[in-house]
Design brief:
It is a single chain. About 45% of the residues lie in helices and about 20% in strands. The chain has about 550 residues and is an alpha+beta fold. Among the domains are: about 140 residues, Beta-Lactamase, CATH 3.30.450; about 230 residues, Phosphatase 2c, domain 1, CATH 3.60.40.10. Strand 1 and strand 2 form a beta hairpin. About 25% of the residues are buried.
């Protein structure tokens, strides 16, 4: 492990608590700001709606429409002007006005109908816009879009928040004025200045954040003092004892010479319990290291013996090819790729006599030395009985009886086939093994019709059914163990028999020689696994029949 610079626990806790206090301040301030802001906005919007409702009650929309069209102020118009002026004088709004939107995006984007004034405003500001006056620069150009949208807003107040250099932050409420036909003819606008609200909000936010930081700082001081007494200092003593123990382990090869210094923690809580358990753990660790030293020596010896056993097991399988270079009736090749553990997959190929070739593919249900030993016995029995001239069915019957006598729960699946090299007759028996694939000349690989029989070594006296098929020149037989179709990648997807059969047919278009075909299959499996470890052995055997 790298000797990276370490930070003290106390500094880490200060950083964590300080960060927590800052985050808490930000969260509380934000929540308070959000709540306060929305409550104030709701109150002001309700106030605007009340002013709009009162103002609307004084407006005769039909008379207003006629005044707009003629440009003349009627008596009703003058009464409404006085009412709007009175409302403004007795309210807290900045502006009350009625406008008629004109066009979008222009400077003159609205025409005034009414503009409420307070006492003294005319003397202070001069002429106030009234009926027929255009807005000019009174409203920004983009306000035309808000005006036109408010005209189509139905019976809902449209709110707009904006900021101007002259008035600061302004909240505007717009509501359409409908004539007797229900058509919007103008808008009632009410403006309230929001600068004081934003100032109050900023002061509130500063107060909350500052108060939280002060309280957090006081809490942090008290918390760290208690933390140092109850946790940091005891943990530091335990760390020193553990470091001393590690240094001893690097200098003293004999575990019995190691000693762990008691950190003397008496906090009366989980930290003291941790210290006690650390003392017990190091004592057990010293004992374990002594045992491990002995176990490691034994395991190295067993590993060496297993390596020799694996080598002996592999040497019992035919590995020299061409296996029968003097024979022209057939070509044959086989290969076994073992998994991490010693397994029981095997194959065999031998001449029964001058005119008969036997091929065997089998697999023991188990791992390790017992499976390897059973594999050797099974392979030997099958070969001996076959070379005695027995039929494939009788070979398996005798082998099964022998294995069942002393079987302790391990069984064998196997396939045995004998081909007559003179006429191509192929007799075979399948004892619950993977179904071989047969390719006739000019065709593709397909499953060999093979009736599954009982596994070998499970029960004596069971029958085995023998079948046969006629091989012709160019036929190709493929035997394999289940480790091939059941190979599983890191995603849990299996290679599958369908993919195996498809890839085998493709390989025939890429290579002719049997070793090359097997190599292509092995490469495809490794690509499919994508680095995942094979859990089962993979054995493959290819037989091409030429005949005489």
């Amino acid at each position: 492990m790298e000797n990276r610079p370490r930070k003290k626990l106390s500094r880490k806790m200060i950083g964590i608590c300080s960060g927590f206090a800052l985050i808490l301040s930000a969260v509380l301030g934000s929540l308070g700001f959000y709540t306060y802001y929305h409550n104030i906005m709701d109150q002001y919007q309700q106030y605007i709606e009340t002013i709009i409702s009162i103002s609307r009650s004084y407006i005769d929309a039909d008379d207003m429409t006629e005044c707009i069209e003629t440009g003349e102020k009627s008596a009703r118009y003058e009464e409404t002007q006085k009412s709007l002026d009175n409302i403004k004088n007795h309210s807290q709004v900045e502006f009350i006005y009625v406008i008629k939107p004109l066009n979008d995006g222009a400077v003159d984007n609205a025409m005034y109908v009414w503009n409420a004034v307070e006492e003294g405003e005319v003397e202070e500001f001069g002429v106030i816009d009234s009926l027929g006056d255009l807005s000019g620069e009174g409203f920004p150009e983009d306000m035309a879009g808000h005006f036109l949208g408010a005209m189509d807003g139905g019976e809902e107040v449209t709110y707009i928040s904006n900021r101007s250099e002259e008035f600061g932050y302004v909240l505007t409420g717009l509501y359409p004025v409908l004539d007797s036909q229900g058509q919007a003819q103008a808008l009632i606008g009410v403006d309230i200045l929001m600068d004081k609200i934003y100032t109050d909000l900023q002061q509130y936010l500063i107060f909350v954040v500052a108060g939280t930081l002060i309280v957090g700082a006081l809490f942090l001081i008290l918390f760290l003092r208690q933390l140092n007494k109850s946790v940091i200092a005891p943990v530091a003593r335990m760390a020193e004892s553990a470091e001393d123990f590690v240094q001893q382990s690097g200098k003293k090869p004999d575990p019995s010479e190691l000693h762990f210094r008691d950190p003397q923690v008496h906090t009366g809580d989980e930290v003291e319990l941790l210290s006690e358990n650390l003392n017990k753990m190091t004592a057990e660790l010293v004992e374990y290291m002594g045992n491990l030293k002995q176990v490691t020596a034994d395991r190295e010896r067993i590993g060496a013996e297993l390596s020799v056993a694996t080598s002996i097991q592999s040497s019992m399988l035919p590995r020299i090819f061409p296996a029968f270079p003097e024979r022209t009736e057939f070509d044959i090749y086989a290969e076994l790729k073992v998994a991490r553990e010693m397994g029981g997959s095997f194959y065999d190929l031998f001449l029964v006599d001058e005119n008969h070739l036997a091929v065997v593919m089998g697999e023991i249900a188990g791992k390790g030395i017992p499976a390897a030993l059973l594999m050797v016995i099974t392979k030997t029995l099958i070969k001996n009985y076959a070379q005695m001239g027995y039929s494939p069915a009788k070979v398996f019957s005798e082998t099964n009886n022998q294995l069942s006598e002393s079987n302790e729960g391990m069984t064998t699946t196997a396939f045995l086939g004998v081909v007559d090299l003179t006429d191509g007759k192929f007799e075979y028996v399948n004892a619950a093994h993977c179904t071989p694939l047969l390719k006739h000349a000019g065709g593709e690989f397909a499953a060999l019709p093979a009736k599954d029989c009982f596994v070998l070594g499970s029960m004596a006296g069971v029958p085995y059914w023998q079948q046969s098929v006629r091989l012709v020149q160019g036929d190709l037989l493929f035997l394999y163990t289940k480790g091939l179709p059941e190979a599983e990648n890191a995603s849990g997807v299996q290679y599958s028999e369908d993919h195996m059969q498809m890839r085998l047919n493709q390989a025939l278009g890429e290579a002719y020689e049997l070793p090359d075909i097997v190599r292509l299959m092995q490469q495809d499996v490794e690509t499919f696994l994508g680095g995942a470890v094979r859990q089962q052995d993979i054995a493959m055997l290819l037989l091409r029949y030429f005949g005489k």
